[in-house]
Amino acid sequence: MPLNSVEWEKICERCGRCCYEKYTYRGKIFYTDKPCQYLDTETNCCRIYDQRSELHPDCARLTPQLVKAGIMPEGCPYVKNLDDDSTSK
């Protein structure tokens, strides 16, 4: 059974890695050490989380499809849960 949005959000451990700039080179995603301007680097929480779609339209909403596409680092709990059928929406 697919997770609802609250259950999906609870997987996050607030590492903040998804909020660092990334670039793709030859099909591989690399992370920079430059955080998004809205990331509070002390708490690793987004300062505009509830309004991020409106205030920062380039912010990609994390979905199981994006996780499966390899956008998150290996240690991310979303990646760890990829084999769990409940994350496939």
Short description:
21% of the residues lie in helices and 20% in strands.
Topology:
Elements: H1 5-10, E1 20-25, E2 28-35, E3 39-40, E4 45-46, H2 52-55, H3 64-68, H4 77-80
Antiparallel strand pairs: 1-2, 3-4
What attributes does this structure have?
21% helix, globular, 4 strands, two-stranded antiparallel sheet, alpha+beta, 89 residues, two-stranded antiparallel ribbon
Molecular structure report:
The structure is a single chain. The chain has 89 residues and is of the alpha+beta class. The chain has one domain. It contains four helices and four strands. It has a two-stranded antiparallel ribbon. Strands 3-4 form a two-stranded antiparallel ribbon. A hairpin with a 2-residue loop joins β1 and β2. The longest helix has 6 residues. The radius of gyration is 13 Å and the shape is globular. The protein starts with a helix and ends in a 9-residue tail after the last helix. The relative contact order is 0.21. The C terminus is likely disordered.
**Secondary-structure element sequence?**
HEEEEHHH
Shape: globular
Report the major sheet. Answer: 2 strands, antiparallel
Question: How many structural domains can be distinguished in the coordinates?
Answer: 1
Name the helicity range: 10-25%
Provide the β-strand percentage band. 15-25%
Poorly predicted runs: 85-89
Can you give the mean pLDDT? 86
Tally of separate helices = 4
Structural class, by secondary structure, is alpha+beta
What strand line-up does the widest sheet have? 1-2
